[in-house]
Design goal:
The protein has one helix at residues 68-78, and strands at residues 3-7, 13-16, 21-22, 31-33, 37-38, 44-45, 48-50, 56-60, 66-67, 85-88, 94-109, 123-132. By secondary structure, it is mainly beta. The chain has one domain. Strands 1, 2, 3, 8, 9, 10, 11 and 12 form an 8-stranded antiparallel β-sheet that branches. Strand 10 (85-88) and strand 11 form a beta hairpin.
């Protein structure tokens, strides 16, 4: 079971390493609340509402690797404005997402690669930052 990211425009599919970890899965709540505002009579006004989108999905690379060719493909996808995708969790949950800004962070080669010795299968670590829409 792996993570998959599918572009909704043309169904192009990318499988991501199964060891990616959803870093902020439990840091978000759809219930949002305004700061308390006190009226002249001393009453308090607090507004609450349910967020319909905007949940961050940060795929942490601590234990995951991504190939140079896949990283280049993701970088090309990042350049497409308003690109929506379907992210499928390894447990089969699906989310409609777009890239957050910045989209890719902590990009680091697993081993030192000299200029000119690059290969499409070179391994990197890279966090992938998404938002639900």
């Amino acid at each position: 079971m792996t993570w998959t990211l599918k572009r909704n425009t043309d169904q192009a599919l990318m499988s991501l390493h199964s060891q990616y970890h959803w870093l902020d899965e439990y840091d978000w709540s759809s219930l949002k609340q305004s700061a308390p505002v006190y009226t002249l009579s001393g009453a308090v006004d607090i507004q609450q509402g349910t967020m319909l989108a905007g949940r961050p999905i940060t795929l942490d690379c601590t234990n995951a690797r991504i190939k140079r060719s896949e990283l280049e493909q993701l970088q090309a996808w990042v350049q497409m404005p308003e690109l929506t995708m379907t992210l499928t969790h390894p447990d089969d949950r699906t989310f409609t997402v777009l890239f957050a800004s910045p989209a890719l962070t902590d990009i680091t080669p697993v081993k030192v690669i000299r200029a000119g010795d690059e290969h499409p299968d070179d391994k990197f670590t890279a966090n992938i930052n998404l938002l639900t829409v």
